[in-house]
Write a structure and sequence with these properties.
This protein has 2 domains: 3-149 and 287-335, Rossmann fold, CATH 3.40.50.450; 153-285 and 341-365, 3-Layer(aba) Sandwich (Rossmann fold), CATH 3.40.50.460. The chain has 10 helices and 15 strands. The protein has helices at 16-31, 91-103, 115-126, 151-172, 187-195, 210-222, 260-272, 292-310, 330-335, 345-352, and strands at 3-8, 34-38, 51-53, 80-81, 87-88, 108-113, 131-135, 175-180, 200-202, 228-233, 245-247, 256-257, 276-280, 316-321, 324-329. Helix 1 (16-31) links the parallel strand 1 (3-8) and strand 2. Bound molecules: 6-O-phosphono-beta-D-fructofuranose.
């Protein structure tokens, strides 16, 4: 192995550039390899290829920089969505990309991304090309790793938003809803809700009843708190309801979630007569500089991915396991999303400190009498 390629895919996340920097420094400095950056995700391997050599001088100053210097795109060519909801991975597209990899002299790939990107990376592996994956997503919903980089930064931003909403909510006696990302998993909402002291946390894994949320608002009022803070995952849904979408997507893009916060806002103001405001945090959670933890994790992942390739590992993903970076089969990482177990310890803790998840049977989890919580 003389030359490795590095590719970043899917939505960006703080720490992508830190991975690139660590991978380049390790590959060149420790193993004497060449590194080629592939631009615009796997798309850069099709048609007129878009690649550039990355030397240590090219990655100087990248550690704190948000986004990805390689760009990230998804034109849906590597995984084609069919009308009936199924998907296919066209031979001619992979054939063209593999041909270009060989023409460019790239012997192996470090693929940095979430579930979608790693599923494409796995397909390259299945077709005989050496690949090691690096788990990225602010949603933290990838299996085979305890954490993905980007998540801790998103958590800081969501927590700060909750802190700021607290003071204005209290001053105006309002209900404030913060809608956060997390397509099918409530990790950002759960963790920021606990660290930002939300009164209600709504996540996809625990369908909620708006009536229960209204009840919590009234209970708080009866106990002297005229304001309520709610954090809701974009993918949360009401019992017997469905997720709220901004648009349904098309052949190239997945449906886009968003709008549950505003929807709930209407319901709650009608039910409680209170002023309810909704803030959608959106891409502020993804842009900008990674925090200290994500810089460290991304660096650790980037180096470990190159070490794994150099040691002959193939078709694996680096991941965090009990504070150490180890590899696991890519297949395991993409098999299922890692969602919040509804009976997990942090959910229990949140309920113990008085948080409502708006579940229809929420009362069975709260034993305090009167205003004790
Ligand atoms: O997967 C990360 C994520 O941030 C999701 O939480 C969110 O639904 C999605 O990306 C938004 O993606 P886009 O920027 O393509 O709209």
């Amino acid at each position: 192995m003389k030359t490795i390629g590095i590719v970043t895919g899917g939505g960006d996340a703080p720490g992508l550039n830190a991975v690139i920097r660590a991978a380049v420094k390790t590959a060149v400095g420790e193993y004497g390899l060449h590194v080629v950056g592939i631009e615009d995700s796997f798309e850069g391997l099709l048609g007129e290829t878009r690649v550039r050599e990355l030397k240590p001088a090219d990655v100087r100053g990248l550690l704190p920089r948000g986004g990805t210097i390689l760009g990230t795109r998804n034109r849906g060519r590597f995984v084609v969505r069919e009308e009936d909801g199924s998907s296919s991975k066209p031979d001619e597209v992979y054939g063209e990309a593999l041909g270009n990899l060989s023409r460019l002299g790239i012997d192996a790939l470090v693929a940095v991304g979430g579930e979608g990107t790693l599923a494409i990376a796995y397909e390259f592996h299945r077709r005989g090309f050496p690949v090691v994956g690096v788990p990225k997503t602010i949603d933290n919903d990838l299996a085979a790793t305890e954490l993905t980089f980007g998540f801790m930064t998103a958590l800081d931003i969501a927590t700060e938003a909750l802190d700021r909403l607290h003071t204005t909510a209290e001053s105006h006696d309002r209900v404030m809803i913060l809608e956060v990302m997390g397509r099918h998993a409530g990790w950002i909402a759960l963790h920021s809700g606990v660290s930002g002291g939300a009164d209600v946390i709504l996540i996809p894994e625990i369908p909620f009843s708006a009536g229960q949320v209204a009840r919590k608002i009234r209970q708080r009022e009866a106990c002297g708190s005229q304001f309520t803070i709610i954090v809701v995952s974009e993918g949360a849904k009401e019992v017997e309801g469905h997720e709220v979408y901004q648009d349904q997507g098309d052949k190239q893009s997945a449906p886009r979630l968003g709008g549950i916060g505003h929807h709930l806002s209407g319901e709650l103001s009608e039910m409680t007569g209170k002023e309810v405001r909704c803030v959608v945090l959106g891409h502020l959670q993804r842009g900008g500089s990674p925090n200290a933890f994500d810089r460290m994790l991304a660096t650790n992942f980037g180096s470990a991915a190159v070490r794994a390739l150099a040691r002959g590992k193939r078709g694996v993903m680096v991941g965090l396991h009990a504070a150490n970076v180890r590899t696991a089969p890519l297949e395991e990482a993409i098999a299922n999303l890692k969602t919040v177990p509804p009976e997990s310890q942090l959910v229990r803790t949140a309920r113990d400190v008085g948080v409502s998840f708006g579940a229809p049977d929420e009362d069975k989890y709260h034993h305090a009498e009167g205003c004790d919580q």
